[in-house]
Amino acid sequence: MGFWEDVRAAAQELSSHPDATIISHIDADGISGEAILAQALAREGIRTTSVFVRQLEPLTMRQVPRDDSFKIFCDLGAGQQNLLEEHGLSNEEVLIIDHHVSQDCGTAYQQVNCLPYGHTKLSAAGVAYLVARELDASNADLAPLAVIGNVGDMMAREDCGLIGPAREIARDGASQGLIEIRERDLNCYGISTRPLHVCLSYNDDPFIPGISNNAPGAMKFLQRLGIPLRDPVKGTLVWEEIPDEHRKRITSALAQQLLAHGEGISRLFAESYIFPGEPERTPLRNAQEFATLLNSCGRWSRPSVGGSICRGDRGTAYRQAEHMLTNHRAVIRELLLYILETGVTELSHLQFIHVGDRYPDTIVGIGAGMALSKLNMDKPILIMVEQPQDPGLTKVSMRTTERVVGWGIDLQQAIAEASSALGGAGGGHRIAAGAYIPRESEQEFVRRVNELLSGQYAEAGAGHR
Ligand SMILES: [Mn+2]
User: What is the dihedral sign for C-alpha 84, 90, 91, 97?
Assistant: First the structure.
């Protein structure tokens, strides 16, 4: 059977059950996938109950009710089919909608999974949408939720936009006026809510010298362009609101800045997905920020609040989620203080800190960059964080300053060499780089990076220590 046959079979299966339980993951993809399925099934007159889990394991399996309802696993299940079997679930009462590697067991569970068919840039919410649309064409109005799930699961990151079936889903939404697809938009987070200089300074993909990690620098850069970024009525404009011709001038100036530093410009542009029906200057306005809003609900163990927002609640649930999102920013400030208060360990050519599992790996690089400006700026900073979803791995981020890069220091080179020697993988830029390394080689990794940097400093000439 092909992928689309599996989609059709799943739709047929779903329409034959009066009651269903949806078991889904607590991240943006799981939350939006659950909302797609629950709404599509409700429209068929099928009663649904939803359960969210952080991951599917023996303990969380207890939340899966032992009743007559049909069980739909969304964004999980493919890799844990043995757990379903141990739970006593038969193949007639289960449908798995997933995009993770499948681990078959003795029971042949019905599954719609895009991964074995080579669709690697489609998330579970994307698959759920395709099934929902097969159930009834009118479910195409749920396309924005699928785009949020896809973007939330980083399906657009590598290619600077969605591709394949995920892009078709975005076009589905665009043809109904629900999504505005902006091609070659600025590849930057916060285009609907943040002042542009803040947006730019937080962005490190691509890392723009003088602008990334440097809010005053970004501000000066924009002022020099002489483009009005304030509106008499609206005040400071966000990127999304800046007129087309001004946006073009800003991106071409940013491209020049990258080229002047010998950096490529391909990652400066990305496709963005804006929801014109949502209120301006809110995180509901584009897929990336909407996904963060849902992720912060999950991180606060309130996935159903995100689910209500996906169903259109713009009152209580939205206010609660906004609160959780604000807290997410507070966590970054907290990390900064944690680094400064705990203190870093200084080696001859770098300073490092391990934050355990206190902070999400998505923010440690930002926090380290902010802390560096308050530490010895001539020594690169290295920060390590545990991976809760993979205890065998440690995520490493490094940051330095342009001054140090100017001496000939290249973090990308050091981190890539040290990580690959220890069975990890890393990359990035001279000024900012990251890696995943095996947990047991943390100490050796730090030692090797320090040694490689020492070589770089030596080559750059004496006196820079
Ligand atoms: Mn997913």
Answer: negative
